[in-house]
Design goal:
Blueprint (H helix, E strand, L loop, with lengths): L3 E6 L2 E6 L9 H17 L3 E6 L18 H20 L4 E5 L2 E3 H7 L4 E5 L3 E3 L13 H9 L1 H10 L3 E2 H7 L4 E3 L4 H13 L3 H30 L6 H16 L12
Parallel strand pairs: 2-3, 3-4, 4-6, 5-7, 6-9
Antiparallel strand pairs: 1-2, 7-8
Helix pairs in contact: 1-2, 4-5
Length: 262
Amino acid sequence: MSHLGFDINDHVAEIVLDNPPQNRIDEQMAEELLAAVEKAESSGARAILLRAEGPDFCFGGDIVTWPDLDVRQLRMLFERYMFAFNRFEQIPVPVIAAVNGLCFGGGFELALRSDVIFAGEGARFGHPEQTLGIVTLLGGIYRSAARAGRARAYEWALTSEQVPAATMAQAGVVNHILPDAEVLEAARAFARKVAAGPTRAHAAHKALLRMWEAGGVKAADDSMFDIAIPLFESKDVAVALTSAVAAYKAGRPRPTVDFTGE
């Protein structure tokens, strides 16, 4: 992989945007993202950390070739991007993004596919598509709205302003803000923590949230037991539930469980 790095340690897969100087997303990076998702799934990773090389996370899509493509070719290109981004979003383990510097356009849309976002104090986010007369092509505006509400998401798309990390945190888009130099290690530590947890339960919660986003509480309720009940057949629940009941009966504190993800 030449535009995307991949490594795995302590059950955490790191996917690294590495297309200097701006880490722009092109066809090659989209293909490598798909390959990285497949590697993460086959490796047994129990969490994913998304980060970038260099001072900036990503400036967005590589627009250089777009004027030379007709609308059919453009649609095919963006459909490939959407497919790769959706596969990344749907991977059934927690995904944590570490964002420093500028995070614009497709880069912002990729970060929004993560479950938890750590950002540096100097990070800035934005939808620059308005400056080109187009829309957020990979679902950025409505994924922003899912976190921050319709009014804020539409304003950001209307203005293409560079939104500071602090504002994004206040709006619920970013989970944690830290000094720029501390973002990566904090995100790594969090990824290691969730990777040591009940992996199948994490996947179930992620699936339920997708159901809720798509169809509201009713859709999530309708899917609840199809998603939740199989967990009771897992090794992790067998150990955790049995030990919790034994501790309760003995009047002892509930013990810490070493979850295996099985």
